[in-house]
Write a structure and sequence with these properties.
alpha+beta, 4-stranded antiparallel β-sheet, 12 strands
C-alpha cells in the first residue's frame, strides 16, 4: 500500500510542474540601438544602447499581453567569432548569458542566448541567429533568436526577436507511469492474495 501511495504522490507532484513558454515577440532599438565592431583577431562585439522597446503587433502566445511599444527592454552585449563565415561556424564567446530581459505586470521575461548559428554583416545590413532558452518567471522553453539591422537613408534600424514553441511536457508521461506502477502493484497483491 505504501508503494501505491508513493507512486500517486510522485505522479501528482511531477504532473503539476510542467509548463512550456510559447509565442513570439520582437524588439526595436531604433537608429542608435546597436553598434557592431570586429577587431583584428576576428572577434565581433555587439554593443546595445538601452532601452529597447516591444515592436507593435509582434506579440503572440504567452507574450500577447505585453503592450505595443512597451519599454524598457534591456539588451545584453555579446562577442563572437565567425562573422560572415559559413552558418554553424560561429562561436559565441559570451554564451550563455541573458541577451534580453524586461518585467511587466509582475512577471519577468528573458532570453538566455546559448549559441549563435549564423552571423553576417554585408552591405549595410546585419543578420544573426541563435538558440537559447526563453523564460517567463521560472517557466522556460527552448527558443530561437534573431537579430537584424538595416540601413534606411542616414539611420539604421535594429530588430531582435525570439520564437518558442511548446513541447510536450513530461507530466502526462510520468502520470501514466505512476498509474501503470500502481496497477502493477495492485495486480501483484491480487495474485499473492489468490495464492494464499
Amino acid at each position: 500500500m505504501k508503494k501505491i501511495i508513493l507512486a500517486m504522490v510522485a505522479t501528482m507532484f511531477v504532473a503539476v510542474q510542467a509548463y512550456a513558454v510559447n509565442g513570439t515577440i520582437q524588439f526595436n532599438g531604433g537608429p542608435s540601438g546597436m553598434t557592431q565592431k570586429t577587431n583584428k583577431k576576428g572577434v565581433t562585439t555587439n554593443h546595445f544602447v538601452n532601452p529597447w522597446s516591444v515592436t507593435a503587433g509582434t506579440q503572440t502566445g504567452d507574450y500577447s499581453t505585453v503592450p505595443d511599444g512597451f519599454s524598457p527592454v534591456t539588451m545584453g552585449d555579446f562577442s563572437f567569432t565567425g562573422n560572415n563565415a559559413a552558418p554553424g561556424s560561429q562561436v559565441c564567446l559570451s554564451c550563455p548569458f541573458v541577451q534580453w530581459s524586461f518585467s511587466f505586470s509582475g512577471k519577468t521575461y528573458n532570453f538566455t542566448l546559448e549559441s549563435i548559428t549564423s552571423a553576417s554583416n554585408i552591405a549595410g545590413s546585419i543578420a544573426e541567429t541563435g538558440t537559447g532558452t526563453a523564460c517567463i518567471d521560472s517557466n522556460c522553453s527552448p527558443g530561437t533568436w534573431s537579430l537584424s539591422g538595416s540601413k534606411h537613408g542616414n539611420s539604421f534600424t535594429f530588430n531582435a526577436s525570439v520564437q518558442t514553441s511548446s513541447v510536450p511536457d513530461g507530466g502526462s508521461a510520468v502520470a501514466l507511469l505512476g498509474i501503470a506502477l500502481a496497477g502493477t502493484e495492485a495486480g501483484r497483491r491480487l495474485l499473492r492474495a489468490r495464492k494464499a
